[in-house]
Amino acid sequence: MRLSVTSVAAVAIFATTTVTNASAASGVAACSVTGASGSATFTNWTSDYVDISGWVKDTAADGHHVAIRFRSMDGGTGWVTDWSWRHEYDGNGAVTSFSTYARPTGDDLDYIGVQVAVMEGSTIVRSCTAWA
């Protein structure tokens, strides 16, 4: 009996993380790494559209800049798409906020999240990823 309750709970958790065209959902993804923290809120999320508002903060006087980008994954193929970076160059304590949307050509927004990074030029020094 206990095994069957656990199985039902696991199925219910999986079902709530997958989005279909028939439903619009919302979510939040946030993570921190030494030198940077960031978060994004997702609204009107379907498999082919999502509104995104977020921020990234530089948390260290280390000479590096920080950035955040939206990531999406197609649940059928496992293919991850990395969207454009949003950079913060003003140093320790500075925050960049943004609002945008994503509309891929296919139904590729089954899983969505953010990557927050400390960067040197276009090279990632450290990063973290969180999924909504």
Automatic annotation (TrEMBL):
Keywords annotated in UniProt: Signal
Superkingdom assignment: Bacteria
PROSITE patterns xrefs: PROKAR_LIPOPROTEIN (PS51257)
Cleavable signal peptide: 1-24
Protein name: Secreted protein
Species this chain originates from: Streptomyces osmaniensis
